Amino acid sequence: MEFNWGDSIWELMLTKRPSDTHFSQSSTPGGKSSLVRNDDNTLNTHAVLFDGDKAVLGILAAGVVVTAAAAKAAPHVKSGLISLKSMLRRQAEETTDAETPVPLTVVAEVESEQHGPPRLRAV
Question: Are the beta carbons of 52 and 65 closer than 8 angstroms?
């Protein structure tokens, strides 16, 4: 991507430089130079410049693909979340029901006054 503006040509570039380095300050305010310096500000090398158009197209294409995939998956994700919420609610209700105290009825047993073996009755 290149265009003329005034007496300058502007071009979008992708740069490559070694880790732990930084670009030199340009004499133009806010600009950087392609010279690469170490942390102690000594000159290390020059940055390698690549055509930025392909990088921009690649990023845009990836964005379109991700957006389309998200739009297609959204209804399925929403349905899955609704099912999960429903299942968790049912489990919570079952747990609450199981934890609800059941009133107990105590029946006192009266000891029989008869001692000895039980008698058989004829019917």
Answer: no
35: exposed, middle or buried (Cβ count in 10 Å: 0-12, 13-18, 19+): middle
Contact 53, 3 (CB under 8 A): no
Kindly give the pairing relationship between strand 32-37 and strand 22-25: antiparallel
Structure tokens at 70: 């998200």
pLDDT, tens only, 92-103: 777 766 666 667
The answer to whether residues 13 and 48 touch, using CB atoms and an 8 Å cutoff, is no
